[in-house]
Structures are given as structure tokens and as C-alpha cells.
Amino acid sequence: MQWEAAVALHGGNYAVVLWSDVWQRELADQLVHGRIPMSEERRSLMRTADDSKSFSFARLRETTLRAWLRQRLSPTLYRKLVHSLKLTISWFYRNDLNRLATIFGTDKWGDHWYTQHYQRYFSPLRNKRLNILEIGVGGYEGLGKGGASLRMWKAYFRKSKIVGIDIHDKTKLSEHQIDVRQCDQTDSDGLLGLSKEYGGFDVIIDDGSHLNEHVVKSFQILFPVLRPNGIYVVEDTQTAYWPSWGGGIGNPKSSITFFRNLVDGLNHVEYPAKNYKPNYFDQNIVEISFFHNLIFIRKGNNNEPANAPELIQRELDSV
Fold this sequence. Notes:
- By secondary structure, this protein is an alpha/beta fold.
- The chain is 43% helix and 14% strand.
- The chain has 14 helices and 7 strands.
- The protein has helices at residues 3-9, 14-18, 21-32, 40-51, 62-72, 75-92, 97-104, 115-122, 148-156, 188-198, 212-222, 255-265, 280-284, 309-318, and strands at 131-135, 161-166, 178-182, 201-206, 226-235, 285-291, 294-299.
- Strand 6 and strand 7 form a beta hairpin.
- The longest helix is centred in the first third of the chain and has 18 residues, at 75-92.
- The chain starts with a helix and ends with a helix.
- The relative contact order is 0.07.
């Protein structure tokens, strides 16, 4: 029986096929007896597993399984199978962003360690209907590549709309609940038009070019149209220290310097400055959190009164 027939028998539920004992035994036989190319060391290990009747998919390397599937399936059916399998598995880990990042292959966990922080901030929002924008789809110039983190967000925020933008054309990656557009992250008209189309975004994640000038400009364009109580996230701030990316240690134009300066604005009512006029960011940022290569900025009405106005006046009088 061919894989295509087995898939048809299972009503198009591609993931089910992988858990069939029949197909596990066939795969084991194919691997152990040399009908699929692999290293002799790995084949020896699988012969041992087969002899001890303890063979299971857990002992297969992902690359070996994929090679076997590619031999048996058409490219279209293979992509559908992998996509369906990931969706099926993701349902069981729908509350765990670390696991979802691994399932969908995004670098937000493993290469970086971001999803542990996302989990803390996004857990209370998971079941709400939100508009989420991610700058940067991934895959660079490859038209069909990227979108891993968009699929992770889709699996986690099951009631939300996920929008991704990229300077390259990634629109073919659009699917149910995911809308991918081609847009430069410094294109003010394009960004504002997209925000207007969706009625604003509740979460914005900058995983774009990471060039310092682009990071700052995107924030200046998008934060004012972020919805109240929204969260703006900037990833990969290590480039703030790299001169070739427009950063550098102590560089006043670096992204980290820009966001660090916003911290003072949280306390602008405490300034002993008679003629100081708070700017938009002073008035609308209520939280800034810095992690390794990661920043979270929460939008809100920063209108708490001064802690001790009489002491501020005393500072003014002493000048």
C-alpha cells in the first residue's frame, strides 16, 4: 500500500498515519535493512533497538524520518503532512510557548530564549481576540520560506488575527488566521494604512531588520497607533552595540539608548523642571522591561501624580 492510499483511507488526516503500528514497523524495516540511506553507526543502533523489540519513533532522528517521507510522498503531500502533524501536536502544547517554538521551528527558543518572557506577558491575553503584528517573517529572500513564528502565534493565540510584514514578498505564506503583507518596516504610510485597516494592533513585535535606525523609526510610527494597554516588543537588541548595524557602545543613536531614555519619561511628573512639557511617550508608556536582547513596552495612561509635590517645589526654589 502506498502512502497516498493510506492517507486517503484516513480521510485526509495526515498526522494519524504516523501513529499507525503498521507504518512504524515498515519504517523500522526500511531503516534497519538498508533501504534508506543513513550512517552505519545509526543503522547499528536501530538494529539493536529492533532486536530488543524496543524500536519507536522516539529513536529516530528528525532528518532520517524526513528523508524517508520525502522518498515516499510527493512534495505537495509531504508539506501537507508536516503542516498537519505540527498543527496536531501543537494543540496538546497550545499553552506552552517554549514547546510551540520548538514544534514550529522558530528561533525564539533555542537560538534565543525569548518565549519564556513572552509566556509571562502573553499568558493573560491568550484567549482574547487580538490583532497581532509581527515585523519580519523570516526566510530572507526565499519566497516560500519563513513564517515559523507566525504559526507559533497562531497556535497560541487561537482567537486572534496574526499579521506579518516583510520587505520581501512572503504573501504566499498567508493562511487561515495569518495575513502576510509585503511592507518595509520604515514605510510610514504602509504601516499606518495597515494599522487603520485592522483597527489598530494589540501586540506589535519587531523582529525585522534589527538595524538601529529601523528599530527606532518603526517604534515612532507604530507605538502611537498601538491600542491602549497594548504591548510593543523589540527583539535582538544585541545589534544596538554593533557599529556596522548603526549601534555601538555609548552610541546616542543606538536603539538601546533610545529605549533607555524612555525610562526617565515614566517619572516625568517628578522632574524639578517648571516648563517641562511631557511628550507622547512620557504620557503613554507605563512599563518598560529589559531582558537579554529583548525589550517589552506597555502602553497606558501614565497619569500618576507626583509622589511629593512639595519636595519638587523645594528643588525648584533652590535653583
